[in-house]
Amino acid sequence: MNVISAELWELISFFEIEPVIPPGEAWPYTDAVFVVACNGLSLSCAIAPAYKVVRLMLEAGATRIYELNAMDIDDLRYRRNDGEEFLDICLAKSQVLTLRVKPTIQLSQAFKPNV
Q1: Which of 26, 32, 61, 108 gets the highest tally of CB atoms within 10 A of its CB?
Q2: 12: helix, coil or strand?
Q3: What is the pTM assigned to this prediction?
């Protein structure tokens, strides 16, 4: 089966919360939703591992400031470096969106041509 690399326990560690999963559905054949808030920002991240779908919504109060709806991504990877946790949303071989939620919510995107 071709699913994302990130394991459920890694995502729980990253977001520091249990996801909302529809009743009767099981990982990885479900849509797990993680919601975190920090410094006036709210982030909702929905992940469907078996279908390689990721949806992000970042809001400041009632204002949506970023939205991502990505289908058939290359991968979703959890990584830990020097005590910091990152979630890499590999949109394609040449594009990676990196998410951090601790100590504050941060998004960064990299594009590497000819990869």
Answers
A1: 32
A2: helix
A3: 0.89
Phi, psi of 70 (to 5 degrees): -120, 125
Whole-number Å distance between alpha carbons of 99 and 92: 16
Interior angle at CA 38, CA 49 and CA 11, nearest 5:
20
Tokens of 101: 């939620």
The torsion angles phi and psi of 16, rounded to 5 degrees, stand at 60, 30
Integer Cα distance of 58 and 62 in angstroms = 10
Which residues make Cβ contacts (< 8 Å) with residue 101, sequence separation at least 6? Answer: 14, 15, 16, 36, 38, 43, 85
Predicted local confidence at residue 1, as pLDDT: 52
By CB atoms closer than 10 A (0-12, 13-18, 19+), residue 7 is: middle
Q: Tell me the β-bridge partners of 48.
A: 53
